[in-house]
Design goal:
CATH topology of the largest domain: Alkaline Phosphatase, subunit A
Distance between the termini: 21 Å
Strand order of the largest sheet: 9-8-10-1-11-12-2-13
Radius of gyration: 21 Å
Largest sheet: 8 strands, mixed
Number of helices: 15
CATH architecture of the largest domain: 3-Layer(aba) Sandwich
CATH superfamily of the largest domain: Alkaline Phosphatase, subunit A
């Protein structure tokens, strides 16, 4: 973000919506088309004709972003300078009162075979109710000189928070991001975090023993060891009154650290719920972050057709967003998740910006190749935020 933005930002009555379809774009599948080219997206295709479009790199060319850096970038923060680990995001996302000095790590329940090798990194995507049943086992774990808090996040995801003196967050993941191999040891990455690494390995060893007779979640993997981040908030940077609406806790965590109010956290189960919460709170805020998760999930599953179907569901929400008459509407992905890759990738992701003061690119469709021809060009993700602000009349002129 340019350092002059806080000086130029002004409070107005105009409203902005940032609609993020997680892992939205992809690569050509068996038919030679991407998921976006395969799906029927009438609303986004119509917007591509009357909006400014382009491609964004959330972190940088050739860099594959995690969801945290991807969203930080869309929120206007340089994710290299403001990295927040998954652990802190997971804790904040469920409303856990993480404190300076704490170290949090995300837990994935996983399935191990009789040799201790990983069969499924997500334990068959166990339901949240099963996660909650397992949580008392992890809460049994006690280690001297540290408090341990274990909480369910969603489905196979949980979080552990270590609280005590002398902890540091520089610890390596135990998730090898592969099957057929055992979990890794939590390695110390900086000497100041040795105590944390030792505690983490003892915690994991005890957790494995407690879970060994469970099925399918008979093990854990840890990721994203992180401490409490310090970000300037949207109120400080942009003079906004922002709100976030998302089904998954991690995305609420990024938003919370940015200073956004979290709306409907206990009631949202699907996009219809998200839109209803948005409509009910439309008069109270001037910036809304809306998140759609399942485009990413189906991409990671490697299910090309299912991801295309999720894009179509996400497209249907556009009508209700436009009915609110936002002054600026941005539609973007936080990263690319090609079904043929079954993971996040480094490819640039399409973006469109719609509003009364936006040019019309007259593109044929909202797809990767079409957006490559758009007037916004290819740019770092964190430059989207000032574009949204200007399109909504929220930035003063710079200089005389």
């Amino acid at each position: 973000m340019l350092p002059i933005i806080p000086e130029l930002a002004k409070k107005t009555g105009s409203k902005i919506i940032l609609y993020v379809m997680d892992g939205m774009s992809g690569l050509p599948g068996p038919g030679g088309k991407t998921e976006m080219e395969t799906a029927n997206l009438p609303n986004m295709d119509r917007l591509a004709r009357i909006s400014e479009c382009g491609l964004i790199d959330p972190v940088g060319r050739g860099i594959t972003p995690g969801s945290g850096p991807g969203h930080l970038s869309l929120f206007g923060y340089n994710p290299v300078e403001n990295l927040i680990g998954r652990g802190a995001l997971a804790a904040a996302g469920i409303g856990f009162p993480i404190q300076p000095g704490d170290v949090a790590a995300r837990i994935n329940f996983c399935t191990l075979d009789e040799k201790g090798n990983i069969v499924d990194r997500r334990a068959g995507r166990i339901p949240t109710e099963k996660n909650q049943e397992l949580m008392p086992k992890l809460r049994e774990i006690k280690i001297p000189d540290v408090e341990i808090f274990c909480e369910t996040v969603r489905e196979y995801r949980s979080v552990v928070i270590f609280r005590g003196e002398g902890l540091g967050p520089d610890v390596g993941d135990t998730d090898p991001q592969a099957t057929g191999v055992p979990p890794l040891t939590a390695m110390v990455l900086e000497y100041a975090s040795k105590k944390t690494a030792d505690i983490a390995n003892e915690f994991i060893e005890k957790a494995m023993e407690l879970l060994k007779d469970e099925s399918p979640a008979n093990g854990i993997l840890t990721r994203g060891y992180s401490g409490y981040p310090e970000l300037q908030t949207y109120q400080e940077l942009y003079k906004l009154t922002p709100a976030a609406i998302a089904t998954y806790p991690m995305y609420r965590g990024v938003a919370r650290f940015a200073g956004m109010d979290i709306l409907g956290a206990d009631t949202i189960e699907n996009m219809d719920d998200e839109l209803s919460v948005l409509e009910a709170n439309w008069e109270k805020y001037d910036f809304f972050f809306i998140h759609y998760k399942y485009t990413d999930s189906r991409g990671e599953d490697g299910d090309f057709e299912a991801k295309a179907a999720e894009l179509e569901k996400a497209d249907a929400a556009i009508e209700r967003l436009l009915a609110l008459e936002p002054d600026a509407l941005a539609v973007a992905g936080d990263h690319t998740t090609p079904a043929v890759w079954k993971a996040h990738s480094w490819h640039a992701s399409p973006v469109l910006l719609h509003g009364a003061w936006c040019r019309h690119d007259n593109l044929a469709a909202f797809t990767e190749n079409e957006c490559a021809r758009g007037s916004l060009g290819r740019f770092p993700g964190w430059e989207l935020m000032p574009l949204m602000l200007s399109s909504a009349g929220k930035l003063e002129k710079y200089g005389a």
